User: Fold these one by one.
Assistant:
Number 1:
Amino acid sequence: NVETQGYCSLKWLSRHLSPYSLIISDCEGYEFVLFQRGAIPNLNTATLIVESHDLPPWEKHAKLIESFQSTHEVEEVSFDTSDRSKRANVDLSFLSDSELSLAVGEPRNSLQKWLYFRPKLLNTV
């Protein structure tokens, strides 16, 4: 029951998002446009895992978290992407150095954050 889409607009998401959905998003900065809780009522019950493409001082990132605080518990996961291969739970020793760099590298700045939005509604069930 998994469906992937090539492009997801605010309008499309508003029309098609079912209650209690799971969204995993790596949309290259578009998360600050797409995830407007007030514009999409079913986001209130959705579980979201979102890669955040902001830069220090993380102003857009903080605004996104704030917009969901009334309906979701939010957990931030930050890490330094230059150290990603050391924390992989998979043996990648079969890759050459250049292949490893491609597999786990992040071409942007070395700071990266993921956000886990867990609906508060689900915590009471």
Note: The mean pLDDT is 82.
Number 2:
Amino acid sequence: PVFSFETRVNAGAAQELPGTTGIAHMMEHMAFKGTERVGTKDYAAEAPLLAEEEAAWQSVMDERRKGAHGDSAELSRRTRHFQDARDKARGPVVSNGFGTLIEQNGAVGLNAQTSSDWTRYYYSLPSNRLEFWGAMEGGRMAFPVFREFYKERDVVYEERRMRTESTPVGRLFEQFMQTAYTAHPYGYGVIGFPSDLSTFTRTQGEAFYRKHYVAKNMAVAVVGDVKRDELKGVADKYWSDLSSAPAPPEIDVWEPEQKAERRVLLEDPAQPYVIVGWHCPAQTDPSYPAYEALGDLIAGGTHSRLHKLLVKEKKIAVAVGAGPGLTGAKYPTLFLTFVVPAAGQDPLAAEQELYKALDDIMKNKPFTAEELEGYKVRTRADLVGQAERNSSLAAALVSAEIAFGDWHAFFRQAERAQSLTPADVMNAMKKIMVRGNRTVAVIVPPNSETA
């Protein structure tokens, strides 16, 4: 017998500020570094070393911020001092101490993830390890120690290099997001900007954690072979030390209405790629299920309109995709469509074929009741599949709790999907798919006529 859990903190990239982008992703890493008891050989000896490391980095930044008025020799000296302090601070560390202890007690699927809306932590354990789970999770959420902070910051920077800077599609998508959003922090991206990833401090990380990792900003779902009363006792015993501070205020910045098409052309010898996005409502909007259905019907698989037309019939593309909320959906989001042109195809011509196909749907060939019923069948099957697995059900319930403030919303959203009509989907499509609401990003061959 096992149980799965998922904890979500209502703090993702959208809660960051310029100067600290990527810090929410760093907090995901820091939660695996343990506490004063876990992850260290001797915390009494480690604590002053951590303080020395932080002071050394602050000293580096003080000199660096002098810019042209700074002393390069002094900056080099302070950098060496910081590197020495960082190495000393790692001396008492038990590498991967938290994760090792968790897995030694039978955990599987130990992981975490940060999105634009939240950070999630999850794994599954044998049911007889419930109290152990409470102690470990309550401890790391209430009393984390941000050891190896600057080492992990370098790891996050390397993740950025691998995911964004070293991949043409990654570079394209980053430029697309920064073009699609002119005000809302969804445009920052989850991984952060290079300048921030090389400058923000552990002090700033701890401040972000204290602000967002509070009980009123978290949701926890536990699914499996556990009894409610026993779970409540464990929670009361081990989770009561979480901060009782108020949840941080919601973001006040809203993306202004887009009224003109925006375009990005990335010249690169890589595989051509087309991204088209339209602003659409947040997942809490009553119309959101219609956009989810729209994504499935136009490019959700071999059954979809774009796959049949662009991939099978015209052979213009080798792959298509579509749907809302990929970039986060707590706030008004984007409905995205992706087209991967076939070899030899002009990506800008493929873009125009995409528009022709979408216009044809809106003007001449609306979705049918039969197509929508197929979507509903697939949705019901997905719902059953989620409910059959502890881990996926925990994820679904806690996601609904974070987004709607009520875990029952998971079931209500499924009911809303089943009540959709073809007119609902067509109305949603026509509302957003206008040129002035469109942002486009395309990889084109370098020095080509299309560029």
Note: DSSP finds 17 helices and nine strands in the chain.
Number 3:
Amino acid sequence: MLCLHGAPGRASGTLILSTGPGAHTRFQRASIAGSVGVTQLIAFGTSLYLLAILANPIGLSTGWSLPWITGGMSVGLLASAVVAPWVGEQIAHKGGRKVLAASAVLFACGLVVIGLSQSLLVYMSGWALMGLGMASGLYDSAFSTLGRVFGDKTRPMISIIVIIGGFASTVFWIIGGLMLETLGWRTVCFAYAACHIAINLPIFLVAVPSRLPEVKSETDHRARFHLSDYTDPKFLFLALLFMLEVLVATIMGVHLISLLGMMGQTLATAIAIAALLGPSQIAGRLIELAVGSRILPTTATIIALLVMIAGLVFMALLPGMTTSAMLLYGAGIGVLSVVRGTLPLTLFSQEFYPVLIGQIARPIALTQAAAPTIGALMLVNLGAAGSLLILSGICIMALVAAIILRTMSDVTH
């Protein structure tokens, strides 16, 4: 179990917070969340969504093959997996303001290196820097930073952040597309780097709270995530749940247009249907924000997975319902992006929340790195309908893990 151990002969785990969520009004917390949401919109739009519009221009300009170009993102995700646990520990012990500020600099440096690259080695180096930025500056670090300070007040803040961040692909695909026509892909990279320095860095330094709740007890505040904690069933099922969900989400995100094409949709229709994914995720997040306070995160997880499963099955078996199925799937994914921040905070202590998120981020990043290849093999060997049914089966496995976590949570409380 995750816990704090007091001195011998004293009450174990005694934790008194003299500062914390009560030091901020609801409006102030919403303002902080809105500001951090803007940074996430920029961070996602200039990293994980970068190659959606730049891959082909990079290939035409450099002569590099598409697998090598997209392989840069895999390098970044692997770099992220290496440092993610360390990032979580830094946030747990020192707070996240400096970590998030460093991410803005790392993203900017990575984008500049990519924009200057004339060889694959330099290009991959730029993505390695981007990976360090992703480990320290995307949702996991933002959620950990705020969760460490605000505790159970963080849930609506996370909803606000992911609602704003959900527009990343739409905003940056449009902006990048317009810039590409006149300025070229290298200038797009430089402009995106400037966004991190001119917008994200000041927000992190000004808006993110730097003071952590004070610990007044015999507790060793430097206590770490012990090896025995990795065998905690809650930790294991939580990691499994998120790995399975991320596997499905990444495969769908990378191969969605190809999958729809294999189902007989024209390219224009496939793009139109795929474009519904963003708005449907936003709708799911808005619903979660409206009713989230009335239901437990474990319950929200179960409902979201059921909606996802319905969407994938309908898409596989009822081609005439593809549009409706996409809306269901997107809404489920949208809710799960919130749950990824709120569920661990429900199951484990506030102080160790950042450490927990950092530990889980490693297998998630490794899963993301492997998912595009796994998805391609599925499409080639199973076809569109078969792949969708396999993905729904993976979601069913995640659903079982969520139900088990709900049971464990009920027993704990």
Note: Residues 1-21, 216-224 have pLDDT under 50 and may be disordered.
